[in-house]
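Bacterial Ig domain-containing protein
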Amino acid sequence: MKPTTKGTDTRNQSVDKKMVDKVNQQMATEEDSLMAKIIGFGLILLGAAFIVLAVVVVVLSRRTAEIDESLEVPTLKANLYTNEEVTAVEGTTSPDGEVMFFIDGEESDVVATADSDGEFSAELTLPNEEGVYDIQAATVEGFPLRNRSKKSDISSITLDKTAPSAEAEFDYDPISQDGKFDLSGTVDPNAIVRLSAPDGVEYYTSANEDGKFNFEQIKLNAKDTEYNVTLVDEAGNERELALKLEVSYPAFVEPIASGDVNGDGVVDDADGDLNGDGVTTGDGTVAGVTDTPDLPEAAGELDAAMDILGGNTLMLILGLIAVAVFSLNSGVVAVKLGSKR
């Protein structure tokens, strides 16, 4: 008899299959690894290409723009004086156009876009040094290769961070005879002079190029008034002077009582509120006017007053008649009761 090999063959086939599967798996893994390396290398090349492209775009965008005389030259408006490095500018150009800016001839990084009406605005940062700076604008188009229009007219901005000088001269009469006073003097050229009264009222005037200024007929609202003086320069810097202006008005008469003044010279109600320029007596009434809440509120309404007084008299007469009738009836009843007894 021949020996049986079926079981051995089956085991051999199983081992062979495992080896084949292992080899196939190893080959697949190697192929996946190779594909992954190829994809990774491709992504690296693509990233490098994007970086190179970005560098090229940046370089080209920073290239000095070529002048295209067909582009509209923008108009530019800026503050003449400022006390801050960041200053606002505005102007007009072609609708939806882009605008670049120049500070003392050097191109700024700021770019503004105009609206559909061609109006634009921007904030420019000036060097952190006081001085005069020339601002210009130009319409720009194209990216990364840019073309621009000619520059606009120069708008000069003065950066000034220094407060006005404390040295000032004032000329005024410290005693007023009519409740008003005039004030003149000398301060920094073109400065604004602000007077502040204790009641919150403020007065303004501007000095001329020589620093001369003048206030006329400032009204006094108290017997003694002390004014604070503040100087404001064209850039907006302020300085409050230590000097106080003291003015006296000896003839000033303090109001006896306060009230709501409406201008018709009589009381609104019984609490003594004035409607005009009358003077309260201190007890809730007005001198020469009865404290009657039913009186008309406007002086001179004689007809209305007579109507009210006439109506009151009629009521009084009717009341007296009613009392008399009641008394008569009471007497008659008493007589009848007495006769029955």
